[in-house]
Amino acid sequence: MTDLFLRQIHPSWVGESGDLQSRSFIPTAKDEGKLSVDDSTKATPESSFKHFTEVLGLQSAGTWAVSAEEVAENPELSCDASPLHDNPAHCSLNFPRGGTKGEIKNIGQKLAAKASKRGRLYKG
Amino acid sequence: MPDEFISPRFTGDRFAEHTLPFDVARDLVAYEELVLALAKYLYKEKHQDRKRVVRGFAKGFHLHLTKTEDGSTIPKIVLAPTAALLACLPIEITEARDLINEVIACENKESLPSEFPKEFYPFFDRIGRSLQDGEAIEWRPESPDKKAILTPEKRKRLALAHQETYEANIHLVGLIESLDREKLRCRIKTVDGVSVSFSFSKQFFPELSSALSNTAAFAYIEGVGEYDVRDQLQTITEIETIEIIPHYPLVDRLDKLQKLKDGWLNGEGVAPAPADLDTLSEQLAEHFPNGLAYPEVGLSDEGNVILEWIRPNVRAELEVNFPDRQLELYSTVFDPEDFLEEIVPLDEPDCWARLFASIKHRLAHA
């Protein structure tokens, strides 16, 4: 099992204070409840950022992370290795199916707080 | 047909429509004043036996702005003397023009022309002051290597060539710290944390007075400021407009969302409707309580505005759900863990007051 789950954060979700907004750790509509992260045993904060920005051509303010322990503190969450052809480190944090918006917000706030406290691991 | 005197080219987005913004005209007025003053100076230098220039020197010298040329952004500034005056217009007028071009053409490492009197450099407090970042005036666009390009940076260098300060247009926002009605003096602390004192005319007293010692009333001032060589604002020398904007930092953050388009989130992400953002700005200006810290402002991928207060032990998200016309508060206290969810329809009269009260209560756990 990985130590850290690395996540790329869109610049819009980094607050003026540098804190991560909670929205940054909540799946979007297209994610279908699966939050994309990278396994830190297979990717570094730098390689994860470069894959996201240079290979996929997407915007990121940098790499943040939550630990496996922090994820485990949320029993509603499960995680799967879901390697992609161009990204073997890819994993999914699976938010509860049928969870209410409040339940999902609660998990997002806790994860964002942990990641924000840990700080940005790679800026680019 | 008037003789062409100079044909500067204005570059930058604002000039793409082949029109000149009105404030640029003021730069040109200052340019005309410099040409005339410098011409008189050059004349006196040549005729040191005379105590003053000849009577009527350069009489009839006026620069006129003709229409912008099609297909370019080159407004023609044209000398418009009568035929009779054209014959007797002093040569120093064109010498002054050429010397000014030489001064402007000087790059950083080059020495400024010694013939240009140092007391005339403050004209560059006004010539080019309207230029914004990325804009420039090419005074000799036809020249292959000496276009005499005036940029905001070049203007600042020239204005500071022989003085300790320079002037620049200001658009600043801050809180009014003190106000002296008798002396017509005011002190403002800008949102960047700079405190500046300045004089003002009586007409602005009511606005400034309404914002005095009010931590929610931000004064927005447009005018001219005096800066030192380190770009620190020293004072405000001219005020054109003062507007009081309640809760400016919050309103400003919402304004920034107006620029987002659909797809803002790496191809997904709905942009909120401008009318919804305008309404929200008005409601927050009216209902946001004094004393509550301003939140981070963000968007959900569905285009809902989220105001979020982030503290070490608590997070509170107030989501403005535009499609469902409701306010949604989601807040987690981390230790001891507690979660609050509160949904209030936007058409409920005290919806804002209720939720702001809840947020204040939650933040007490911070």
Q: What is the mean predicted local confidence, pLDDT of chain A? A: 95
Adjacency order of strands in the biggest sheet of chain A: 3-1-2-5-4
Mean pLDDT across residues of chain B: 89
How much of the sequence lies in strands of chain B comes to: 25-35%
Give the total of beta strands of chain B. Answer: 16
What are the segments of chain A in which pLDDT stays under 50 over at least 5 consecutive residues? none
Class inferred from helices and paired strands of chain A? alpha+beta
Radius of gyration of chain A: 13 Å
Question: What is the count of helical runs of chain A?
Answer: 3
Describe the main β-sheet of chain B briefly: 5 strands, antiparallel
Report the largest inter-chain contact.
A-B, 25 and 27 residues
Structural Rg of chain B: 28 Å
Which regions of chain B are unreliable across 5 or more consecutive residues at pLDDT < 50?
none
N-to-C series of helices and strands of chain B: EEHEEHHEEHEEEHEEHHEEEEEH
Q: Order of strands across the biggest sheet of chain B?
A: 9-8-7-10-11
Number of strands of chain A: 5
Class by helix and strand content of chain B?
Answer: alpha+beta
The first-to-last residue Cα distance of chain B is: 76 Å
* Terminal-residue CA separation of chain A: 26 Å
What fraction of the residues of chain A are assigned to beta strands by DSSP?
15-25%
Oligomerization: heterodimer
What does this structure look like?
The complex is a heterodimer of chains A (124) and B (366). Chain A is an alpha+beta fold and 124 residues long. Helices cover 27% and strands 20% of the residues of chain A. Chain A has 3 helices and 5 strands, in the order E-E-H-E-H-E-E-H. In chain A, strand 4 and strand 5 form a beta hairpin. The longest helix of chain A has 18 residues. The longest helix of chain B is centred in the first third of the chain and has 25 residues. With 366 residues, chain B is of the alpha+beta class. The mean pLDDT of chain B is 89. Helices cover 27% and strands 31% of the residues of chain B. Chain B is built from 8 helices and 16 strands. In chain B, strands 9-8-7-10-11 form a 5-stranded antiparallel beta sheet, with helices on one face. A 5-stranded antiparallel beta sheet of chain B has the order 12-13-14-15-16. At the A-B interface, helix 3 of A face strand 12, strand 13 and strand 15 of B.
